[in-house]
Write a structure and sequence with these properties.
With about 325 residues, this protein is of the alpha/beta class. The protein has eleven helices and nine strands.
Length: about 325
């Protein structure tokens, strides 16, 4: 494993990423495109979700670099210029988690904070569960612990919100629909589900569209969902009160998420030994972009050992 010593310029030219570079890292048998910023032996790995791109962390990367972290925001398997195998089996959860473990090992840092959103959050939960020695701190944004998600998926509210997961199991049709007009539908979905649209510019949406419009790109991205259903990989997570995640965990949730019920956050502390939960009222699923200033304030406080501002109220699970 290793990474290319000669960086190339990032595709997205924005003030937030002015100091960022792109490197190429070999890990777990494939090559990754990684946005990076900062230096040092403390690593911050930022894991994006669907249908995003590493640039979704553009607001957090400068903060993390200023706090003394070497920041790596990879385009995960199937995204950007990272290798995009076309087989469903290449996207099993264990393989995806091994990708992240390989990236951390390639960086050679003495300590690592893992930050994940959406699918990236699922990988972060799994990494901290299966490879605890690689994760010293954990940050999750709008990604429920898999056991909490499975619990709520049995209820009508979350089942209805997750309809697209079942649609994505159909061969070829989702690729055709999402890929129409250079993946215009991808941009429309993000726009329609964002409360404050000013934080996701047309330039960023164009990056997301280009990402989905690559040859084989949508098939690779959708295969994450296909593999998760076929392998039932979430059943490998430990049950309540068993092998709790030891890494201190900051869990941030935008309450206006159109894809995930806030009930999926309830009882997360059954799986995490040291949990700090913060709810952001009225913020959408795209929390690190839409409410980046608030997220950064919380992130900086938590990483600096200060009290994290609290806008949430405790949630109780009703029968």
């Amino acid at each position: 494993m290793g990474y290319a010593s000669k960086p190339v310029q990032a595709q997205l030219h924005s003030p937030e990423l002015a100091a960022a570079k792109t490197i190429h890292v070999a890990a777990n048998g494939i090559n990754f495109e990684v946005l990076t910023q900062g230096e040092g032996d403390r690593l911050a790995v930022c894991l994006h979700g669907f249908p995003e791109h590493a640039c979704c962390w553009r607001f957090q990367m400068p903060l993390l670099a200023r706090l003394g972290f070497q920041v790596w925001a990879p385009n995960l398997r199937g995204y950007g210029a990272t290798d995009s195998p076309q087989s469903v089996s290449a996207y099993r959860l264990k393989t995806l988690v091994d990708d992240v473990a390989g990236l951390i090992q390639a960086a050679g840092a003495r300590e690592t904070v893992v930050i994940g959103h959406d699918w990236g959050g699922c990988l972060a939960w799994a990494l901290a569960t299966w490879f605890p020695s690689l994760v010293q701190r954990l940050v999750i944004l709008n990604a429920p612990h898999p056991q909490c998600f499975i619990r709520e998926l049995r209820r009508p509210v979350q089942l209805a919100k997750s309809w697209y997961m079942f649609f994505f199991q159909v061969p070829r049709v989702p690729e055709w629909l999402l890929g129409l007009n250079r993946a215009r539908f991808i941009a429309r979905i993000i726009r329609a589900t964002t409360r404050d649209r000013s934080c996701i510019s047309e330039e960023v949406l164009e990056i997301y569209r280009q990402n989905a419009s690559r040859a084989g790109g949508l098939t690779a991205m959708l295969n994450w969902y296909r593999a998760s259903v076929r392998s039932r990989s979430t059943t490998h997570f430990p049950k309540r009160e068993v092998d709790k995640i030891a890494a201190p965990t900051l869990f941030i949730w935008g309450s206006a998420d159109r894809f995930l019920s806030v009930r999926t956050t309830v009882e997360t502390d059954a799986y995490v030994a040291n949990l700090t939960f913060r709810l952001l009222p009225g913020v959408s699923h795209w929390v690190q972009e839409e409410a980046w200033e608030t997220v950064n304030t919380m992130l900086e406080a938590w990483l600096s050992g200060r009290p994290v501002p609290d806008f949430s109220r405790p949630l109780a699970l009703r029968p």
